[in-house]
Amino acid sequence: MARCGPGHPLVIRNRPVDDEGHPFPTVYWLTCPDAVKAVSRLESEGWIKRLEQQAEIDPQLGTGLRTAHEAYARERGRMHPGAEGWGGVAGSSHGVKCLHAHYAYHLGGGEDPIGVWVAGRLAEGEPVHYEKPSRRVAAIDLGTNSIRLLVVRWTESDGHLQDLARDMVITRLGQGVDRTGRIDPEALRRTVHVLEWYCRRARALGAERVHLAATSAVRDAANRDELAQAVRRLTGEPMEVLPGEQEAELSFIGATRGLTDAEPPYLVLDIGGGSTEFVVGTDRPDAAISAQIGSVRLTERHLHTDPPTYKELDHLELAVTGVLTQVEDRIPVFDAKTLIAVAGTSTTVQAIALALPEYDPDRLHRTILKREDAERVFRILADMTTEERRAIPVMAPGREDVIPAGAAILVAVMQRWGFDRAIVSETDILDGLAYRLVEDSGAP
Description:
By secondary structure, the protein is an alpha/beta fold. The protein folds into three domains: 2-124, no CATH class; 135-244 and 431-440, 2-Layer Sandwich (Nucleotidyltransferase, domain 5); 258-426, 2-Layer Sandwich (Nucleotidyltransferase, domain 5). Helices cover 46% and strands 18% of the residues. It contains 18 helices and 14 strands.
């Protein structure tokens, strides 16, 4: 869930049950050795009992503590139905049982007054671990299908960016936007709930700025004012709605920065939920276009049975091919020597092709996806029902119904423009946003 300054895992999130099916009480676990020692010193000074006593006489603290236990239990239940009855933070339904667990929950984004108190006490004392003076920012990418968070730190002496937290939740903000031109109230509620969590997490990790950029679904929605108000309230900054071409340029920056062993020019392909971005360039983007095809949009327009019929797949292919014809008339895609595929559709297709037992970004980043493997995975996904796709170990919840359409775009690009392989990148527009935030803050 988060890393400390030296890069060691700071907080991990556990499943609510162990390998034998027994309840595991601590979902958020503090793992950085220095942080564990610092919190242990507070416990040895008797602060568990003193904070419990304070919660009994301070109504605000007591209410906040109860709310934290209830929210923790609900999250456990979402991960494992029935587990919400196993208690709150550290498996307790009331009081203070473990300062490590409360602090980990706070760092993970939970609203926990005990965790906030621990963070304050640690900040008053000696540094938990040694690191060069650094600054931190958080970027949030709000897409049609998912909302993603990246918290980074950098030292002004070298400008090196280090990930502190990276997360993705599929909330399907763009559900129905293609048909109605409006954001659905329930989709808005889901998205704002995750945004609240992300903002708490970013600030717990020391982010000076939290900036959100929205893409296709928000561009197309007539009723985005309520979302914009929530973004300003939670991040402290106005919501940025990225034009399609700027979205493409940021994807290119995120995908190619530090890439040294591939032949330019590059074509960066960013398959989103509402739109797909195409960017050609070498050291920087030279030409970019955003097309109104995406996994959610195409699914809502063309795929109505489960699994899709051959006729529906034919219509899908025609829709994609028609757009690709327009793209190649606008930007020099045939000049590109290397295809770089970013975002969840491409990384999931590669994870399936590699038969990974679970989704592992480190094993996927900048690996090679062969065209025949992309075609094979597309055929498998198109023949499956939504429930069968949901059971694939690497499938993110919420992607299972739209990934056939996304995979169709990927395969069509490789076939039409003659790419036998693609570099699959875990870094994309989110990283581009973070680089831009750092540069705006005056980093080298």
